[in-house]
Design goal:
Order of helices and strands: EHEEHEHEEEEEHEHEHEEHEEEEHEEH
Number of strands: 19
CATH superfamily of the largest domain: Spore Coat Polysaccharide Biosynthesis Protein SpsA, Chain A
Distance between the termini: 22 Å
Radius of gyration: 23 Å
Strand content: 25-35%
Number of domains: 2
Strand order of the largest sheet: 11-10-7-12-17-14-18
CATH class of the largest domain: Alpha Beta
């Protein structure tokens, strides 16, 4: 399988992403024509490229690590694992004496999903007005995508990655959600509910958590489908020493007109139908427990306002780019697309 990770420096970033995802080894090895190692590309390298607005058709040489760690083929497995542990590496190339790649060592912890003590809060109390009439009798998170409710697919994504403690915020047609999920015993997890007696916004429900978690907590909107690697998200949050991390997704929009730039009544340049790129809120967050100190009890508060409060207090808020599959099911067209994507992404 490691041979499938070999690419050349001119390989596009999108092709590298496909290889990383397809092999499951979470790395691509950049080599020359003789197979000598030139660099490595990991998920983190690609996310940093996304933050720089590098296009997916750019060569992978622009995001690769040109000075990666490696081991020789003469080193023992024990030495390799010790190096990986000390350097906090999940995988490391094996080279011969001519610096050619002859293998790839993988850390054992990649083979398992450890049980995580982090609390997960799923926001499912909204009215879903943009999806009416579908939501007149059913809360949006309970609309079926594929053969199960949207919220069930979301929760199972967390379960598959080792999470076991869930809170679901409920308000609109809460009984439908609570009857379906119960206490979580069907999934061998613990589910509790945050009952909003009135709409509390996208962050207000955190103010009615019954106890303060000991570990960073994840919060996600109940209308988001994604294949994000949550372990990498938590590692990123920890390594940035931030009080909060917001997941972001790159969004491109092509203007249908030529854009004219002027100065002193003279035309400076004309860009024909330019593509504008933005980072949008991905609806998934990591919060340190102390964030709860900034959330008033039983009061309306949206996440953007919470983040503004944290920034005004001089707190560090990090941004984590989502490069995996992601969709916000806010409109009927999004719901139809998610239904079509389900078999390819979640089965």
């Amino acid at each position: 399988m490691w041979r499938e990770t070999l690419i050349n420096p001119d390989t596009s970033i999108i092709k590298a992403i496909e290889i990383i995802d397809r092999t499951g080894l979470q790395i691509a090895l950049v080599v020359d024509e003789e197979g000598r190692l030139l660099g490595t590309v990991t998920d983190g390298d690609i996310r940093r490229g996304i933050l720089k607005h590098l296009g997916h058709d750019e060569p992978v040489a622009k995001v690769m690590n040109p000075d990666p760690c490696f081991i020789s083929q003469d080193q023992s497995r024990e030495n390799a694992l010790l190096l990986m542990k000390n350097m906090r590496l999940h995988q490391i190339p094996i080279l011969d004496r001519q610096q050619r790649v002859v293998g790839l060592e993988i850390a054992d912890d990649l083979m398992n999903s450890p049980t995580r003590r982090n609390t997960v809060v799923l926001m499912a109390g909204g009215l879903g007005r943009r999806l009416q009439p579908l939501t007149e009798q059913c809360p949006k998170p309970m609309l079926k995508v594929g053969d199960k409710p949207l919220l069930e697919t979301i929760m199972e994504g967390f379960i598959d990655q080792g999470f076991r403690i869930f809170y679901i915020s409920v308000h609109y047609k809460a009984d439908i959600i609570m009857r379906h999920f119960g206490n979580g015993s069907r999934w061998a997890v613990k589910i509790s509910y945050l009952h909003e007696t009135k709409p509390l916004g996208t962050a207000g429900a955190l103010g009615i958590l019954p106890e303060k978690p000991q570990e960073p907590m994840l919060m996600m909107n109940g209308d988001i489908l994604t294949r994000i690697n949550l372990a990498k998200l938590l590692d990123f949050h920890k390594n940035t020493h931030s009080i909060a991390t917001i997941c972001i997704k790159e969004y491109s929009h092509q203007l249908p007109y030529g854009v004219v730039t002027i100065g002193s009544n003279r035309v400076k340049k004309i860009d024909e139908k330019p593509i504008q790129k933005f980072f949008i809120n991905g609806g998934l967050y990591v919060f340190n427990p102390e964030v709860l100190e900034y959330i008033p009890a039983d009061s309306y508060l949206d996440v953007p306002d919470l983040l503004k409060i944290l920034l005004q207090q001089g707190k560090e808020v990090a941004a984590f780019p989502i490069r995996e599959y992601w969709i916000d099911i806010g409109r009927s067209s999004d719901y139809e697309r998610a239904t079509q994507d389900y078999k390819k992404e979640f089965l």
